[in-house]
Specification:
This protein has 140 residues and is an alpha+beta fold. 33% of the residues lie in helices and 19% in strands.
């Protein structure tokens, strides 16, 4: 047996998708470190929150290839990513950053608006405030 045969066998176990130049969307998002777990990436895909070339995707097993442009929300930012390479593992951050080109890096100005925050003390009224409100209502 030659060393070349061992390499071919290891590639089959790692995922045959990479040989054809395609990879599952959830795997790629996980490899590129956009999500901490593959299941989180799959949930986002299943929710229809990922677009490939502007078309919504609802299946985590959708194939991606280099050159595809992904659009998805991550935290409070909308990410637009161009796939440069597929990758074969979830490696360190520098290796993951080499898998994509960020077309719209997150900036504080492009963040989605945060839910309205209530000022401190505007939650449930205190007992004294409730009694004062009831007293006002009795007067009318």
């Amino acid at each position: 047996m030659t060393d070349g045969d061992d390499d071919d066998d290891s590639l089959k176990g790692a995922g045959a998708e990479t040989g054809s130049g395609r990879l599952r969307l959830d795997k790629w998002l996980w490899y590129a470190r956009f999500f901490k777990t593959r299941s989180l990436a799959a949930k986002l895909c299943a929710a229809g929150a990922v677009r490939i070339g502007g078309a919504p995707v609802t299946k985590a097993h959708h194939s991606v290839k280099p050159g595809d442009v992904l659009t998805f929300a991550q935290g409070r930012h909308i990410r637009v990513i161009k796939i440069v390479a597929l990758g074969v593992r979830r490696g360190p951050a520098p290796e993951a950053q080499a898998l994509y080109e960020d077309l719209s890096p997150p900036a504080p100005e492009t963040a989605m608006p945060r839910a309205a925050e209530r000022p401190s003390g505007t939650g449930r009224p205190t007992k004294a405030e409730r009694r004062a409100t009831e007293k006002l209502r009795e007067e009318f």
